[in-house]
Design goal:
Blueprint (H helix, E strand, L loop, with lengths): L1 E10 L5 E7 L2 E7 L17 E7 L8 E9 L7 H17 L5 H17 L4 H14 L16 E3 L3 E3 L9 E2 L1 H13 L2 H7 L5 H15 L4 H8 L3
Length: about 230
């Protein structure tokens, strides 16, 4: 048996579900058969449910079939639009980056981030911490020293910092406070880093996160919606 968190689900008219899960070993895309019939497993297979599962890959099938599933934990509070979008973005990001080599480091950050998004008053704070740490666990974190030798204020999309005069035109403005917050996120223990974000420039850090992930990870479907929602 394996464990994982459901980060995407697609229903079919015949009652099947296509599921994507993030796990400590990596990712899984699997089909759950006939889950919407009476007595089916649909209630256990909701978004962001933490489950224990077993799947079987038949030789002639494109995708493995889910054969057993047990609900381990249900996160409450993620249905509010802002929280849902934060959780969706984190789930997409973790799914995109959880290779077998990086999954072990991503898993505890991802699950901790989901719990924070579900419970904290400002869900973008745990999202920022978890998303940047997931990016770091995959080896895609920005360099924290200024490229030009002057105090960094801008995040360049090639993954480095620079002052406003030397930064490239596509850079994202963080300011000195935003740069320090990014350093705290990537270098300090989790709870300490989260506490420092209470007074951080959240909007700037979010813009930097979304642009950096777009360039270094690829387009995530929830990113555009996350930019539009008002918190």
């Amino acid at each position: 048996m394996h464990e994982g968190v459901i980060v995407n689900r697609l229903s079919f008219p015949n009652g099947d579900l296509l599921l994507r899960l993030v796990s400590p070993e990596g990712t899984l895309q699997t089909v759950a058969r006939k889950v919407h019939r009476p007595g089916g497993r649909g209630a256990r297979l909701s978004l962001f449910h933490h489950v224990r599962y077993q799947s079987y890959h038949r030789p002639a099938s494109d995708l493995p079939t889910l054969t057993q599933v047990e609900l381990l934990f249900r996160l409450e509070g993620l249905s509010a639009p802002g929280r849902y979008l934060c959780a969706s973005f984190l789930g997409e990001l973790a799914y995109a980056l959880s290779s077998p080599e990086s999954a072990e480091g991503i898993w505890p950050v991802f699950t901790s981030g989901l719990r924070g998004i579900a419970t904290q008053d400002e869900p973008r704070i745990p999202l920022l911490w978890a998303a940047w740490r997931v990016i770091a666990a995959a080896g895609l974190a920005p360099r924290l020293e200024s490229r030009c030798g002057h105090p960094g204020e801008m995040l360049e999309l090639n993954g480095g910092l620079a002052c406003a005069s030397c930064a490239t035109a596509s850079s994202v403005y963080l300011g000195m406070a935003g740069v320090q917050s990014l350093v705290d996120i990537l270098t300090r223990p989790g709870q300490e880093a989260v506490q420092t974000l209470v007074a951080a420039p959240i909007d700037r850090l979010m813009r930097a996160l979304l642009r950096h992930s777009q360039v270094h990870v690829g387009g995530l479907r929830s990113a555009a919606l996350l930019e539009q929602v008002r918190f």
